Amino acid sequence: MARKNAGKIMILPRGDWDATVAYSTLDLVHIPNAASYLAIKNVPAGTPVSDTNYWQEMSNYEHVIENFILSQDTQPTSEYNRIWLKPSSDDLVLAELADVQEVANDVNDLKSQSSHCTTVLLTTDNWTDNKQTVEIEAIDADETKQIIEPIPANASLQAYTQAGVMAINQYAGQLEFSCNSVPTDNLTVYVVVTEVMA
Asked: Fewer C-beta neighbours within 10 Å, C or N terminus of the chain?
């Protein structure tokens, strides 16, 4: 099977913008009580989000991700949710984000939906019987009301995948994770919670 390397192919939420951090293409940062911004190329540390040579203003980035994936008619592989296959293709196809502006414009159709992104830390000493529960205020006990998407941070991705970490249960204000083997490092995970509109 032929393989194509498209490089980094998914938007990566990086939390609040930090002037001391250098960002990579497709990193997404948030300015509290303002907008989110997508890096359209590698960004040197200290580059403000107002610099349009490096940043594209976005909003509700979790919907941008969802809308982009749906527009590609893709399905998640069993490996982990950051590589996608075209089901009709014989070749491995990595999704490409070809036109950031077009994707950003699609957000306008999704503004009626409510979403939240929370960063949680799965610590090595909080696993009990290969399970760990974290507090996330936005989570509802009724799974039919929300889509919950845990996304490991880049630094935690390999350990998260190798340990077989996944979210298995939700409760009011809580999300429970399980693992096949207890990770030896603390794991940073971005949890995107999207309200399902009736």
From this structure: C
Degrees, nearest 5: CA angle 141-146-149 = 105
In sequence order, what DSSP letters do the residues of 47-69 get, joined into one string? --TT-TTTEEEES-HHHHHHHHH
DSSP state, residue 21: -
Domain that holds residue 148: 115-195
Facing residues of 176 across strands? Answer: 133, 169
Q: What is the pLDDT of residue 117?
A: 84
Spatial distance between the Cα atoms of 195 and 187, rounded to a whole number of angstroms? 25
Side-chain-side CA neighbours of residue 63 (13 Å): 21
Q: Which tokens in the block code for residue 167?
A: 């979210």
3-class state of residue 182 by DSSP: coil
Query: pLDDT tens across 22-37, in order?
Result: 998 888 888 776 678 8
CA distance 149 to 23: 22
149: β partners: 192
- Structural domain contains residue 7: no
Rounded to an integer, what is the distance from CA 67 to the centroid of its chain?
13
Q: Give the burial string for 46-63 (b: 16+ CB within 10 Å, else e).
A: ebebeeeebbbebbbbbb
- Do 136 and 97 lie in a common domain? no
Whether the full predicted model's pTM is greater than 0.90, yes or no, is no
Boundary-marking domain end, from 109, 139, 162: 109
